Amino acid sequence: MEELLPMIGWALGMALAGAIAFGLLGLVSGTDETATIAPITLLVILLGVPPVGVFAFFMAAISAKHITHAIPTTLLGIPGDTMAAPLLRDAQLLRELGVPHIALRKAISGGVLAALIAVPLAVLFAWLLTPFADAISSVAGWIFLAAAVLIAFLSKSRWAAVIALIPFVLLVLGLNAFTLATLDKTLTVSFFLGIATGPLIVDMFLAASPVGRKTLQRADKRRFELAADSRTWKGRMPSPFGVLSRGQLGATAGAATISSATFVFSPVAMTVLMGELFGSRVKGAYQRLTTQMSVKNGTTESTYIAETLIPLIAIGLPLSPMAASVASPLFNAPPVYTIDDGVPNNLHTLLEPWQFLVFGLLAVIIAVLLTYPFAMTQAHRAAKWIMQKVSHEAIIGAFAGLLVVISLYEGGVIALFVTLTVGLVGGMLNKLFAVHTGVQFMGYYVAVLSVPGILALFA
After folding, report:
1. Residue 457: is it exposed, middle or buried by C-beta count within 10 angstroms (0-12/13-18/19+)?
2. Which residues does 166 contact at the CB level (< 8 Å), separation at least 6?
3. Is 157 helix (H, G, I), strand (E, B) or coil?
4. 120 domain residue, yes or no
5. For the purposes of burial, counting CB atoms within 10 Å of the CB of 172, is it exposed (0-12), middle (13-18) or buried (19 or more)?
6. At CA 434, angle to CA 431 and CA 438, rounded to 5?
7. Is the pTM of this model over 0.90?
């Protein structure tokens, strides 16, 4: 009991922090999960927060953000983040029908239901996979190579992304050799930061260039139409079970179950697939659109949770698109968490399976209790305040400052240059060729884990 109480305290405190911070950040349109959640989680780890606190913070952060990201998506018609993009068309059609408030409630209710389902299911699937963990770890280098090729091929760029892995891997190898010769050590965190914030770094370079600045200029302020506020209930606020119909409850639960098991596929692709799979069976435009809103937003929760928990609990290696991007600090954040030579020393070894289940559910419940009532009752007021008062430039500046501080912490000016180099190249791959951050993170692991094994065969 004496050991349990401090863990509960850390879990509660950090879950509250994660839910509040990213519940609010979800209101800001265009805040990509990899560029926001990953760096902040990395900072939490480097500050010395205990493993249970780190895990609770991350789980609450992804759960809260994928509830409130539906607010700008449905009420303003602009995606709250990357995972909100598949919801945009359905949300726009429901706006045209005059029921954006229904779209919002269906989306956030689906997210709540799926998050609560995904945690125990992910732990169960991880438990089923655990007997094979040693065999998987022994060939980790080759698995990372195969996973990198698969994830690249499943991205929008297909074979272009697969081919782009080659120069990106060579870039990582060259920078690693340079930092080893200069600093007598290789870097990790700086590579992560560069990949995670690549599009942001590209935009900053464009803004600093007279030629590039022209592509970012606008003749006038952007205008958005905020849907009217509407509350359709009396008395107590309805629960997700009251908002979703019986068919929508079943569809959302089914999608959450399927997407929790298929943890090796892209979260965006699974979100689109689940929406089409379950929505196509519903007759009537209104019922189909509202079902797709609940299913799709539910899938954004279940994919993020399952793709983090299954590889983390069962193997300890980032063998999913989510684990290799947004959740990467949970696997590899030197010097605190490492996966040297494919051997994990991270949350996989520091937490027991029951702790993942109990504290994962605790974090999700805290995030739901904070964000669901807020999104149901204050969405219109919050969206209006964010659009009028919050400066996107200030948020970008804050994350740019965080990038500089963490890079300097790991390796001084050399590490900062590495971050900028990787970010500039990775950001251009992302923006110009749709080679997303998951592919790039897997490319990094191929460079540090797969290439040495391949070279050893020919030595």
Report:
1. exposed
2. none
3. coil
4. yes
5. buried
6. 105
7. no
Backbone φ and ψ of 139, nearest 5°: -120, 35
Cβ atoms of 447 and 439 within 8 Å: the answer is: no
Bridge partner residues of 337 (DSSP): 333
Q: Where does residue 229 rank: exposed (0-12), middle (13-18), buried (19+ CB within 10 A)?
A: middle
Tell me which residue range forms the domain holding 452: 4-217+232-457
Q: What is the pLDDT of residue 225?
A: 66
Q: How high is the pLDDT of residue 276?
A: 87
Query: Which 3 state secondary structure label does DSSP give 42?
Result: helix
CA distance 337 to 26: 28
- Angle at alpha carbon of residue 125, lines to 123 and 126, rounded to 5°: 60
Q: Is residue 222 part of a domain?
A: no
Q: Identify the CA nearest to 327 among candidates 305, 348, 349.
A: 305
Would you say residue 48 lies in a domain?
A: yes
Strand, helix or coil at 333? strand
Residues 6+ apart with CB under 8 A from 22: 36, 37, 60, 61, 62, 64, 65, 68
The pairs formed by 285-288 with CB atoms below 8 angstroms and a separation of 24 or more are 285/93, 286/97, 286/99, 287/245, 287/247
Q: What are phi and psi of 344, to 5 degrees?
A: -75, 135
Residue in 402, 365, 372 with CA at minimum distance from that of residue 59: 365
* Nearest by Cα to 107 from 93, 89, 87, 77: 87
Asked if the peptide bond before residue 334 counts as cis, ω within 30 degrees of 0, the response is no
Instruction: For residue 201, give the nearest of 22, 357, 422, 381 by alpha carbon.
Output: 422
Residue given tokens 């996973």 in the structure block? 147
Residue 1 makes CB contacts below 8 A (sequence gap 6+) with: none
Number of domains forming the structure of the chain: 1
213 falls within a domain: yes
Q: What is the DSSP letter of 337?
A: B
C-alpha 417/C-alpha 404 separation (Å) is 10
Compute the distance between CA of residue 402 and CA of residue 398 in angstroms, rounded to an integer: 6
The amino acid sitting at 283 is K
The sign of the dihedral angle between the CA atoms of 307, 308, 313, 315 is: positive
SS3 338: strand
Q: Report how far residue 239's alpha carbon sits from residue 251's, in angstroms, rounded to the nearest whole number.
A: 17
Mean pLDDT by 10 residues, the chain (459 residues): 85 97 87 84 94 97 95 84 85 85 92 96 93 80 84 85 94 95 88 85 87 76 66 72 92 94 79 88 90 95 94 90 87 89 89 95 96 88 76 77 86 94 93 85 86 80
Q: Give the residue carrying structure tokens 């070279």.
A: 455
- Of 216, 267, 203, the residue nearest 37 (C-alpha): 267
Measuring CA to CA, which residue among 328, 417, 304, 431 is closest to residue 40? Answer: 328
